[in-house]
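Continued from yesterday's entry.
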Amino acid sequence: MGRVTASMAAEPIMLLFCQYKDVLTYMLLWSRRKTEFVFSLHKSYNEDVKQVLLSQPNTIEAHKHQKGKTRKGIKKLIMLNK
């Protein structure tokens, strides 16, 4: 599983939840800061989800990461955007 980085950097950080074929994925819009975010996939990772993520412009691919760090990271992002 490789990381996918967006080439555009004009959008603010936004957390998106995408339910696709029973797989919950976290997608983040690229921010002005050139930072790469890593989030976890729930249930299973499959090629269909990978294709959906790759087809979304201006998003970063979500992939497996440590659960505790992921949850804290998501909470921080939600707090930053309120």
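--- second protein ---
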Amino acid sequence: GVGVPSPAVQFTLYKMGEAVLESCPYVKDIKITMPNIHNNPIDLSRFGCKNIHPHGEVFLPIDEPHGIISATLVRSASKL
């Protein structure tokens, strides 16, 4: 599959839940919980290199801040 850029973990959670509701008509709601772990781009200048992508290409996970983010999506009631 092809990845999709995500501006935030909340966006990813929503899109995942939305995909389940769209593809599984018998699912009435879904709760997804994900870790919120930050990864900072590494300054590669001391190695004579640089990250070409504006958001970085080489990252370092950090301990703080971190947390858990969850989302619950509920299927809309049918109008029939």
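The beta strands are 29-41, 59-74. The two ends are 36 Å apart (CA to CA). Will compare against the first tomorrow.
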